């Protein structure tokens, strides 16, 4: 009996639980249905974004969005120019026109070079400064280059600016019928070793030089006009024939010119650029860039001779005088259009001449005397 009552009680409990669960499920279903019915969106509807999508704070302002850069970046600075010092053979003159044009037309700069032209207080020091490394380049004449090389001075030709001699024997008075005999008895002046070592022996025979009446050549220190005007010399063995005769003519002195070729001196370069032999390979790139500028300058000069002369006198008014203006056309046609090109035969021939004259004991190879920097 008690067991039956217990089973009835359990049944009633289960029925009650089921009824409560059913009623709760029905209420939840009705709430879900009602919540799923939403009001249609319209222009007046409020749109609310979750804060996780657009976080904001009351005490911080939103960062500004960077705009696209419209300004171009600054241009790259060009590399620094390589400084090159070049010492002239004497005062600036029309024979240096290629250097002037290359500098004034920015041709050196285009090659990455800054070339400084220096004028020597004494022309004889240019080679000494080059050998000592005080300057990078120097100007000289081919005969002097040979003599310096045989003394062990480390200099080598890397370019030719003027292909023919610019100096000659300038003699006071008119040429004589027996001019050779007349020249043998004159008192000579000279400015460089080229005059005293090469030309005087050609002008004055050994027999005359061994007599008591022989007048020892006199150094005129690059002031031949004053020495001839004062009467201390009769001729200058290495005078610049484009300028000295005109200067003497202005002083009322008549002269005549004897070219080196008339004395048996081989043809040679009148103005060359020399570098230190010990650093040729090291600076080969610099020298080729230097020569590119010179060659371009020469091309422009040949195409524009009148504009060239105007450029020269505009930038260097001291050169604007009748003597230089008269000399310019002749110097123009003697300029080397290919400054780097090397005439090995010319240098070998001059070595042979010096040996035959007893001025040297052995012949140096051309590679010691002159090079083409583009072939290094």
UniProtKB/TrEMBL annotation:
Gene3D superfamilies: Periplasmic binding protein-like II. Keywords: Signal. The keyword Nucleotide-binding does not apply. It holds the Pfam family NMT1. GO terms for biological process: thiamine biosynthetic process. Residues 94-307 form the SsuA/THI5-like domain. Residues 1-29 form the signal peptide. It comes from the Bacteria. InterPro entries: NMT1/THI5, SsuA/THI5. The keyword Signal applies. SUPFAM superfamilies: Periplasmic binding protein-like II (SSF53850). PANTHER family: 4-AMINO-5-HYDROXYMETHYL-2-METHYLPYRIMIDINE PHOSPHATE SYNTHASE THI11-RELATED (PTHR31528), THIAMINE BIOSYNTHESIS PROTEIN HI_0357-RELATED (PTHR31528:SF3). This is ABC transporter substrate-binding protein. It comes from Vreelandella populi.
């Amino acid at each position: 009996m008690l067991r039956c009552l217990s089973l009835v009680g359990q049944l009633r409990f289960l029925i009650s639980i089921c009824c409560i669960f059913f009623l709760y499920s029905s209420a939840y279903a009705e709430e879900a249905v009602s919540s799923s019915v939403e009001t249609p969106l319209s222009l007046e509807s409020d749109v609310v974004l979750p804060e996780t999508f657009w976080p904001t704070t009351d005490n911080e302002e939103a960062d500004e969005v960077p705009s696209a850069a419209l300004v171009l970046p600054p241009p790259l600075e060009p590399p620094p120019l390589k400084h090159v010092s070049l010492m002239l053979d004497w005062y600036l003159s029309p024979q240096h026109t290629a250097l002037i044009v290359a500098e004034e037309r920015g041709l050196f700069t285009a090659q990455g070079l800054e070339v400084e032209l220096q004028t020597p207080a004494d022309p004889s020091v240019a080679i000494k400064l080059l050998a000592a490394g005080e300057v990078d380049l120097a100007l000289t004449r081919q005969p002097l280059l040979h003599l310096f090389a045989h003394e062990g001075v480390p200099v080598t030709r890397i370019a030719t600016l003027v292909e023919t001699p610019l100096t000659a024997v300038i003699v006071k008075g008119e040429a004589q019928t027996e001019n050779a005999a007349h020249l043998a008895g004159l008192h000579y002046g000279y400015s460089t070793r080229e005059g005293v070592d090469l030309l005087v022996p050609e002008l004055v025979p050994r027999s005359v030089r061994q007599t008591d009446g022989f007048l020892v050549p006199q150094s005129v220190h690059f002031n031949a006009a004053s020495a001839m005007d004062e009467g201390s010399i009769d001729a200058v063995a290495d005078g610049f024939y484009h300028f000295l005769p005109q200067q003497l003519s202005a002083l009322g002195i008549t002269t005549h010119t004897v070219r080196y070729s008339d004395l048996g001196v081989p043809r040679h370069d009148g103005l060359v650029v020399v570098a230190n032999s010990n650093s040729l390979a090291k600076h080969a790139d610099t020298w080729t860039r230097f020569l590119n500028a010179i060659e371009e300058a020469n091309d422009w000069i040949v195409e524009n001779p009148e504009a060239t002369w105007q450029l020269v006198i505009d930038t260097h008014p001291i050169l604007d005088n009748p003597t230089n203006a008269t000399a310019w056309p002749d110097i123009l046609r003697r300029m080397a259009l290919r400054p780097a090109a090397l005439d090995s035969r010319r240098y070998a021939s001059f070595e042979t001449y010096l040996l035959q004259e007893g001025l040297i004991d052995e012949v140096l190879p051309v590679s010691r005397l002159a090079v083409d920097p583009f072939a290094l």
